[in-house]
Amino acid sequence: MTTAETGAPRLEDSSETLALRIPPAPAPRGAQDPSETLALRIPPAPAPRGAQDPSETLALRIPPPPAPRSAQDPSETLALRVADLAAIPVQRPPQEAGESAEAAEAAEAAEAAEAAEAADTGQAGEGPADGSAAPRPKAGRDRYLDLLRALALVRVVIYHNFGWTWLPLLFPSMGVMFALAGSLMARSLSRPALGVIRGRLRRLLPPMWMFGAVTLTAMVLDGWGPDAEGHPGWWWGKLAFWILPLSTPPYADSLHGFGGHLPSSWAEQVVVPLWYLRAYLWYVLLSPLMLKAVRRLPWVTLLVPLALSAVLNSGLVDQSGRLMETATDFTTFGACWILGMAHHEGLLSRIPQYVVPSVAPLVLALGFWWLQQSPMDDPRVGPDLEAVPLAQAIWSFGCVMLLLHLSPSWQEWPRPLERFSGLVSLLNSRAVSVYLWHCVALVLTEPLIEPLWNNEFCYTHLRWLLSSQWFPLLVAVPLILAGLLLFGWVEDVAARRSPRLLPYPRRARGRRRG
Q1: Would you kindly state where each structural domain of the chain is located, as residue ranges?
Q2: Can you tell me the distance from the alpha carbon of 170 to that of 178, in angstroms, rounded to the nearest whole number?
Q3: Comparing 78 with 422, which gets the higher pLDDT?
Q4: Number of CB atoms found within 10 A of residue 238's CB
Q5: What gap in Å lies between CA 484 and CA 501, rounded to an integer?
């Protein structure tokens, strides 16, 4: 009688026996019991010294169908004894295979950080990282941060079109964008810093090189060259900043405007966004040091950029020159970048909930007061926050504190905002391209609108539209979209993704767009 039939455990060895009883085809009348037993014996893991025999026997009996009359028991017993197939590899859990729990956790954190890096510069990607003091990252994109970045880009375009000085007070876009970038950078720094910096440069520089290739070619065709500044050697040397923008890349102050079709200052207008790339580059290079400082002395590190901005803008320091230009931008938004890092490290969540809503209004009041005390460039327009670096630093810091304090961390869009999810995703996927090319689109609206004034029908019936400030924006939006189609794919190549002309997400039928 087999083990499967008795059901009794075998105690004489440490092997485990698995017996499966499988009914055969009906045997002819008078046939003997045709059952055969095949035993496969697999040795168990070594037991500790002094331990009892840990083997167990699992017997599964499957009744056969009714056999013909006078037939013997037709069942066949297949017993697989595990030691006879020792050559068959058995996959074990990571800990049994010799992989430590710490190594598995580190691999998981690196994978999450890589997913986050794929979302930077507009791909947010969206999720947090590492650090001894930081909580474990959440999977997926944070739609709240995506929404903030999209709003910041839209606000920048509107501000450059209308010039409304109250817009930076309503929503300080640049402070928000630097804070979000700082948070993502802190997440990615769970991996080796050198690799993270190299990845950030790989995502930032190719879109800028494409922008520089087009802009430099246009400036040269419009009359700019080595003799424009009187120092050909310096002209060629400064072109290196178009490759690595450690300082502001050179551009022409005044050009011919392609026969008067463009304003003579068109080059100065289209290169406005380059200061952001320059500041971003310095923040990325210094982020490993800043993150260490945040973890050791968080509050002191937060206040250092504000203190440096106060010193630079006190009137005691000469702010002329490339070095001071870079230092001014760095100190103006350094507190926002570090605040984004602190938010990722969980600093804001560790303080009482009432602290930020109580302190932030005082910070905003200080920034607004400093703005009112500063001289105005144009009294008819009023004080411009972006023309007063210290006021902008304080005001942006207070606003970012409130926005990060809210931080609802949406994994899916709330129902009222779901209709905008496609546009928000597109803006995040093409954030660098939108920021670089929107000024070009705004400059090109002038030669497109000017001929309409000479059209008799448009002059007679559409004068109200031609004179409206909204009309250039309406013309610029299709031009921005054209710029994304022509040059946005560079962001995909820089991020090592498959190039797409227009990464607008499509929602599956009957399913919400995430």
Answers
A1: 110-430
A2: 17
A3: 422
A4: 17
A5: 7
